[in-house]
From TrEMBL:
UniProtKB keywords: Hydrolase
Molecular functions per Gene Ontology: hydrolase activity
Source organism per UniProt: Labrys monachus
Name the record gives this protein: TIM-barrel fold metal-dependent hydrolase
Domain Amidohydrolase-related intervals: 13-321
Keyword Hydrolase: yes
Length: 340
């Protein structure tokens, strides 16, 4: 729970977190090393100095540390832990659903575990979706369209194989499709993260919600022009939000565009843990004001009501979280009080 300087309690759902193992022991080849070092470059470039981690800690952290950073020192009430396999780069996968389920079992009522699938697996992808639903009861998946598999360096959401998977997800009630679109990570290809295929899939699967993580950056305009017309397309602020520290004017431009085109009901907070920890992000976001000239030009404002929706209410709606019931379960747990 996050308590504002005025004493208001804000329910926070962190929509994009990871429990990864990118240690040298788990790296399959040079690409595993490149991938985590690229994540680390994002961490160093956009974090406040006092929030920087040493590389060995960043490569692999404990469940206890993650719980502390999110819920004890951090302001999160709940966190959605996303699954990303990258088995071409990591022997045991980067952060698989089995690894994520371990931390969810250890700390009950805190985590929502999302699965993942790769439509290039054909029938095995369909079988795996059934397995994840039956074993973990998933309500969502995280998709990585730039992931390598054999000779393939990516796939698209409107590929025939992907449509078969979406049909099954819709049938099984796996309604929230988080998809990484935008920033690339070496050695993956930037164009394989292009946002345009979201338009096709969102139109054809009205029963699914497509949460576009990173808002398509640097293709923000493309994302906005899609999301404004597709009622089931949402924007996840992971990667966009940390600019609030190092380049606040740029963040003001991004959030203003999102508010203008997409609206405050379709934007979700995500820390992208462990690239960034949520406490400083939430504190800075709650205190943030859009500069007056941008506010006047766009005709938008980041009001306290908009911030409440973005920090937790929108994600709670998508995942069917009963906030009052959840608060009762977590009563007595630590509360992160904003710095004055």
């Amino acid at each position: 729970m996050f308590k504002t300087p005025s004493g208001e309690e804000i329910f926070v759902v962190d929509g994009h977190t990871h429990f990864w193992d990118a240690s040298p022991e788990n790296q399959r080849n040079v690409h595993g090393k490149q991938f985590i070092e690229c994540f680390y470059a994002y961490h160093k470039a956009l974090s406040p100095k006092e929030q920087l981690w040493p590389l060995p800690q960043f490569e692999k952290y404990s469940a206890e540390q993650m719980y502390n950073d999110l819920f004890v020192d951090g302001p999160d009430d709940m966190a959605i832990v996303q699954s990303t396999y990258l088995t071409e780069f990591y022997k045991n996968g980067f952060n698989t659903i089995d690894r994520n389920a371990e931390i969810a079992r250890k700390y009950k009522d805190r985590f929502i575990v999302n699965g993942s699938f790769d439509p290039r697996d054909g029938e095995r992808a369909l079988e795996y979706i059934h397995y994840m639903k039956e074993t973990f009861g998933i309500k969502g998946v995280k998709l990585y369209t730039a992931e390598w598999k054999g000779d393939s360096r990516g796939w698209k959401l409107n590929d025939p194989g992907a449509y078969r998977c979406f049909e099954l997800c819709e049938k099984l009630g796996i309604t929230n499709v988080h998809v990484h679109k935008g920033p690339t990570i070496i050695p993956l290809d930037k164009d394989a993260f292009d946002v345009h295929d979201v338009d096709h899939a969102a139109t054809d699967f009205q029963g699914l919600n497509f949460i576009v993580e990173h808002c398509g950056l640097p293709r923000l305009d493309d994302f906005c022009w899609i999301a404004v017309q597709e009622t089931n397309v949402f924007g996840g602020l992971a990667v966009a939000l940390p600019f609030i520290h190092s380049r606040p004017r740029y963040f003001a431009e991004v959030i203003s565009e999102l508010l203008f085109w997409v609206g405050e009901d379709k934007i979700l907070f995500g820390s992208d843990y462990a690239i960034w920890t949520p406490r400083w992000l939430v504190e800075k976001f709650w205190a943030f004001e859009i500069p007056e000239d941008i506010k006047q030009e766009r005709g938008v404002d980041l009001t306290p009501e908009a911030k409440r929706k973005i920090l937790g209410l929108n994600a709670a709606r998508l995942y069917g979280i009963d906030i009052e019931s959840q608060k009762a379960k977590l009563s007595g747990e630590p509360v992160a009080v904003a710095a004055e």
